[in-house]
Amino acid sequence: MAQLWGGRFTKETDELVYRFNASISFDQKFINQDIEGSIAHVKMLAKQGILTEEEKNAIIEGLNGILADVESGALPISDKYEDVHSFVEAVLIDRIGEAGKKMHTGRSRNDQVAVDMRLYVRQEVTAVDELLKELLQTLIRIMEENLDTYMPGFTHLQKAQPITLAHHMGAYFEMFKRDRLRMKDIYARMNYCPLGSGALAGTTYPLDREYTASLLGFDGPTLNSMDSVADRDYVIEFLSALSTIMMHLSRFSEEVIIWNSNEYRFVEIDDAYSTGSSIMPQKKNPDIAELVRGKTGRVYAALVSILTTMKGIPLAYNKDMQEDKELTFDAIDTVKGCLALFDGMLKTMKFNGEVMAESAMKGFTNATDAADYLVNKGVAFRDAHGIIGRLVLYCIERDKSIEELTLAQLKEISPVFEEDLYDAVSLKTCVQKRLTIGAPGHEAMEQVIAINKAYLAE
Ligand code: ARG
To answer: CA 86 to CA 113: how far, in whole Å?
Structure first.
């Protein structure tokens, strides 16, 4: 045990208490951020005349040396220290002596951990955003290649109306685009620097918090020292946005699993993204999609955990807040892994356009268009709805689709039907006549793709 705070204690900490309290096993994940924050802090202290230039240089050199040695493996992070902050400070003092003892001037571990966590989360917000952007590039490519790949659109998982694969992928494009907007919002809102807030009440040293903030790439200092050390809203916002990403990925995974099933065969997942069975030789399972769907739960869990942890904490810092880390780190790593793997699966997936079109032809996805046909011939919509309902029943009894009936058969149901019905209810017409912005028609989709390509090029 090597502690920063032995002075006022008369007894050694119980071993179990020490281990229960320690966070080094997980907060070593942000050693980079911890050292980056300390370097900014000592630069500011020197600028303010609180440290000499020599002290500043010795500390910075020492810190850089520690980071290099940790990265090379020469300096293992030892769990005899309580947390990453204690580890770095102890090694620094050990290596450079007196100057090292001055690094923590005008700082508390409360504002130190607050800035470390913020720097870490900020970096991960950008990393997630980049992965989302890659997924959007994949989606837009699939969209461009499949403007005329017909498939059934579903409601209640029942065939509803024909759409295109481009249109279906476009729905996910919009979802992941919103996810990226959330990353941008979170970044802007969180990008203020808590360093210099001390334990909770600021410090008596003449710190230049604007300067520290600018050194660390923040838009400015936070404006209340108690809020600075007690705020984890940005973690909650990030986990909420990550949960939404997982919800989107999970829905998409569910569709891929259905589409890849023996019954649907709309897609074929590449061998590299499928797994076999230990007993059934014929199996090729969509494990990646299933795992992405399954991992959604642990990301939600991280959100619920931090919300619950924070709800009962009086101002300002309390040790409960140490619980902000493990599940958050796990959620971030999970989402990044899922985004990368899902993108890889999608990139290599084969879409069976013919099977999709075939499926769209069966199942009366053109029934609404058939009703619209009658409306255009002067039949009231409600009557048309009834006529087409009877027509569908007639077809089901004969195992035919609408367009497979003869004109004589059609006229048995309604004399209004003419030869031009066949064109009106063809798959192509049904899709290509839907041309309002947001609809699946070819030109409408081209418009949307152009807008989204311009967005991706921003
Ligand atoms: N490991 C602690 C955490 O993650 C660092 C802050 C400790 N501050 C304190 N007052 N004990 O929250």
So the answer is: 11
